[in-house]
Design goal:
There is one protein chain. It contains 12 helices and 16 strands. By secondary structure, the chain is an alpha+beta fold. It has 2 domains: about 5-110, Nucleic acid-binding proteins (OB fold (Dihydrolipoamide Acetyltransferase, E2P), Beta Barrel); about 125-155 and about 240-445, BirA Bifunctional Protein, domain 2 (2-Layer Sandwich). The strands form 3 sheets. Strands 6-10-11-16-15-14-13-12 form an 8-stranded mixed β-sheet, with helices on both faces. A hairpin with a 2-residue loop joins strand 1 (about 20-30) and strand 2 (about 35-40). The protein is elongated and about 85 Å long. It starts with 5 loop residues before the first helix and ends in a 20-residue tail after the last helix.
């Protein structure tokens, strides 16, 4: 008999005519005279399915070994439930214990556990209501991202995870080597697997540009890595990035795409994951619905970097920021949240930053002081998107690389894009985990990644 998922049963408008098979994990078990009641969950939805087991069908006497956390298979009839809060329940005809859970040592009991405790058992926390909902939302968000770009004629591409380049120029790279670490200093770089220094990628952008300049509209969605020794709730060593790249596009077009992307993703998740989303609105962040509605209203504020600094400088007199907002320095999280949560009280897009604080590949504006770039700032999170128009003029790009002391030979392939049929093109990068934090109200990035990688933390 083919298995039926619990979400299918609970969504059903009519009785199942034939018996069905449900497989899942027991959340609770209570006993009454002649009956046992199991709350069963199979991970397909937030809600549990009540299973009613008559003592007389338990011919193998398995009920005594079934407790919280045990996995079972139940065959039975779907009937209308006389209890409140549920339309259907399952009257068992046959039950089989698949895997026992020792009630003395099983760490997930029917009580609220702290996030700190659940991080110590990341392999089990997905069985809780909160984390089950979180990872279903992560899956639905991934689908929504692919759907968004597919509908707009983008091609999904795969960029290298191992690279010889530092895209952002920040130097926070994980070195990759096949050499024996015990004798590492006795080997030359030519002895290494690639014959040159290799790193885990911090971004797929540069290689994505090559395909954008052939296919037009492309995007990559995959893991990126930064060796940033930071133990803040916003940073992880491994995280996922969404990076679209568009040929024949300028800064204004990519700003429009970024705004449309955020709007579309929030609209999708509110429509298709309402039940899971409601859990976070009720138990994690009660202001969440208001913030999501704010995005759906598509009322994003747009201002240039200089205007943002002027606002922050005036506000510093009363806000007393930890980091003074000074022209020529990047915006800090406290600045971003002030602009979105207090001053404008809506999402903000800041554009045209000073070129000296931005990477080499960004389009230099006619003033030769700023570059055509953007940051999308959201309440609760701060920056969630960073992007730019890419420099398409070969001479300007070479001059910029010379200013920064870069080795142009390593980027000959990148410069070729400007030599052979150059076009204006633009793109952005969005941190997937930060998007999930915004949508759920979860405040620690360690809780939106099933298996977080942070300094001195490498479980699993």
């Amino acid at each position: 008999m083919k298995r039926t998922r619990i979400n299918q049963v609970l969504k059903s408008e009519e009785h199942y005519k034939d018996p069905i098979l449900i497989k899942g994990w027991v959340r609770t078990k209570r006993e009454s005279k002649g009956f046992s009641f199991l709350e069963l969950n199979d991970g397909s939805c937030l809600e549990n399915l009540q299973v009613v087991v008559e003592d007389k069908i338990d011919t193998d006497d398995v009920l005594k070994d079934i407790g919280t956390g045990a996995s079972v298979e139940v065959t039975g009839d779907v009937v209308e439930s006389p209890g409140k809060g549920q339309k259907w329940e399952l009257q068992a005809k046959q039950i089989r214990l698949v895997g026992i859970a020792d009630p003395e040592t099983y760490p997930l009991q029917k009580k609220r556990h702290s996030d700190e405790f659940l991080r110590t058992i990341s392999h089990l926390r997905a069985r809780t209501n909160k984390y089950g909902a979180l990872y279903r939302l992560r899956a639905e968000l991934s689908f929504a991202i692919h759907d968004f770009f597919h509908e707009r004629n983008f091609f999904y591409i795969h960029t290298p995870i191992i690279t010889g380049l530092d895209c952002e120029g920040a130097g926070e790279l994980f070195r990759v080597s096949s050499l024996d670490m015990e004798n590492y200093n006795q080997k030359s770089i030519e002895d290494d697997f690639f014959g040159k220094k290799a790193y885990l990628t911090v971004s797929g952008q540069l290689t994505a540009e090559t395909l954008a300049c052939a296919l037009g509209n492309v995007y990559t969605f995959g893991p990126t890595f930064r060796a940033e020794d930071s133990n803040t709730p916003r940073h992880a060593a491994e995280f996922w990035m969404v990076e679209p790249e568009v040929a024949f596009a300028d800064l204004e077009e990519i700003i429009d795409l970024a705004e449309e992307f955020i709007f579309s993703i929030v609209t999708h998740i509110k429509k298709h994951s309402a039940s899971d989303l409601a859990l976070f609105s009720s138990f994690v962040d009660k202001s969440l619905p208001e913030r999501l509605d704010m995005v759906q209203n598509r009322n994003f504020e747009r201002l240039d970097y200089e205007g943002a600094i002027e606002i922050l400088d005036q506000a510093d007199k009363s806000e007393k920021f930890q980091y003074q907002p000074v022209y020529g320095t990047d915006l800090q999280t406290e600045h971003e949240r002030f602009l979105t949560e207090k001053y404008f009280q809506k999402p903000v897009i800041v554009y045209n930053f000073p070129k000296d604080i931005k990477p080499f590949y960004m389009k230099v504006n006619p003033d030769n002081q700023t570059v055509g770039c953007l940051d999308v700032l959201l309440p609760h999170i701060g920056e969630i998107i960073g992007g730019s128009q890419r420099e398409d003029n070969l001479q300007v790009l070479e001059n910029r690389m010379d200013e920064l002391g870069m080795n142009k030979q390593e980027y000959e392939w990148y410069l070729d894009l400007r030599r052979f049929g150059t076009v204006p093109h633009a793109g952005f990068g969005l941190g997937f985990e930060r998007l999930l934090m915004f949508i759920t109200g979860v405040s620690n990035i360690r809780d939106v990644i099933p298996f977080p990688r942070t300094p001195k933390k490498l479980d699993f």
